[in-house]
Design goal:
2 domains; two-stranded parallel sheet; DUF829 domain-containing protein; about 45% helix; Rossmann fold; 12 strands; single chain; eight-stranded mixed β-sheet
């Protein structure tokens, strides 16, 4: 599908026309500027053989000089991913070639981070971001310079000829020089923004596969090696595969066995990372649900803490543990002795209280535990008095039972 700034299309295993759902994993391919579908066919076929579908994005030459064109194309790519992932979230891998990150991919990353305003729903952007499970850089990243577009335009891998016509080379260099003069200040700010965006992906905690060659004149090995080293210093999981003589974006054509093995291993790792991220998200959601449940329970515990005190504010129990009635001990002050070693956990009674009062529990909690909480008005209650021969020597004991009413 053509859009402002380039085109994009699906290549799915179960549908040659690239329409409809049914994907299980997706590679988003950011091709180099002014590339054609035939240039990426071998790579798309490789991903398909590994059971990954492809969303291929071809950006235009002027996207480097006009960020609005790159943003528009990136917005369309994100919208296309949202439609696919809303039906079924899937692992995503971003695979960029040559200047693909400069012309589109870094704008996609800015949209997902909310840095680039496009009017897309933030929740949709978050959905796409959470599905990203890895990054592949093939002959990439290249530095953001004004003559990059001209170099790509006249490079043999683009023109499919070893020696481009000299008039074409002169024209391309002339255009690059003119654009350099007009957009000099903009290039410097875009360059800093570009590298910062690529390094910020370290927060996604996903692996990186970087494929490069020492014989690459457009993507110097030094630049790529510095990029990989910096990612590792930031804590990234980086695998750098280097060849000696393969040309720019020609690593798969010249090293098919090694290239396929590296990509196959990486895509398997990316799928595992996606599953691990899903498990972690599920655990976080479960923990949040548990916290929401424990919150009212904790509040209830705080509200019942007043039961440990009597009406006059005197502590009934000095520890956090409740004693059942059979284990509650009493001691008498002013000369009374205590045998229990847990003296601080006992309830103290005044020595001036009479025997009848000493048998009465203090406070509401004690009355409830001993089941003798009785209102002052006890009319219509059944009361029995039981006297023994010893009752004449001490106060009568009252045996009270609840009303049958």
């Amino acid at each position: 599908m053509w859009g402002y700034g380039g085109k994009y299309y699906w290549r799915k295993r179960n549908n040659n026309n690239g329409e409809g759902g049914g994907s299980e994993a997706i590679v988003v391919v950011f091709a180099w500027m002014s590339s054609e579908e035939r240039n990426l066919k071998n790579h798309v076929d490789l991903y398909s053989s590994l059971l990954w579908d492809s969303l291929v994005c071809h950006s235009q030459f002027l996207n480097m000089f006009l960020p609005d064109k790159a943003s528009e194309l990136a917005s369309n790519v994100v919208s296309e991913l949202v439609k696919e992932l809303k039906a079924k979230p899937l692992p995503l891998v971003f695979a960029s070639f040559s200047g693909g990150p400069n012309a589109c991919m870094y704008k996609v990353l800015q949209i997902l981070e909310g840095i680039c305003e496009t009017g897309l729903n933030p929740e949709d952007c978050s959905l796409v971001r959470n599905c990203i499970s890895g990054f592949i850089y093939d002959s990439s990243p290249v530095d953001f310079t004004s003559d990059l577009g001209a170099k790509l335009a006249v490079h043999p891998t683009t023109l499919r000829m070893s020696n481009p016509p000299k008039p074409f080379v002169w024209a391309a260099n002339g255009i690059a020089s003119s654009l350099d003069y007009v957009f000099l200040n903009r290039f410097e700010s875009q360059r800093a923004e570009y590298w910062q965006t690529l390094y910020s992906t370290i927060t996604m905690r996903v692996p990186y596969l970087i494929l490069c060659s020492e014989n690459d004149d457009l993507a110097p090995y030094k630049t790529i090696h510095n990029f990989a080293t910096r990612l590792q210093e930031l804590g990234g999981n980086v695998k750098l595969v280097r060849w000696n003589d393969s040309p720019h974006v020609g690593h798969y054509r010249y090293n098919q066995v090694d290239y396929k093995a590296a990509v196959s291993e990486f895509l398997s790792k990316a799928a595992s990372v996606y599953l691990q991220k899903n498990r972690e998200e599920a655990m976080k959601e479960t923990q949040c649900d548990d916290d929401e449940i424990s919150e009212p329970v904790h509040s209830l515990g705080n509200s019942t803490s007043g039961l440990n005190r009597s009406f006059d504010g005197t502590p009934l129990v000095t520890t956090d543990h409740f004693f059942v009635p059979t284990t509650v001990g009493y001691y008498v002050g002013n000369g009374g002795s205590v045998v229990d070693e847990h003296k601080q956990d006992l309830i103290r009674l005044s020595s001036t209280q009479d025997d009848d009062e000493a048998r009465k529990p203090n406070g509401v909690l004690g009355q409830i535990l001993f089941d003798v909480y009785i209102p002052k008005n006890v009319e219509d209650w059944d009361v029995k008095l039981s006297e023994t021969g010893r009752s004449k020597l001490r106060s009568a004991k009252r045996f009270i039972r609840r009303s049958r009413l």
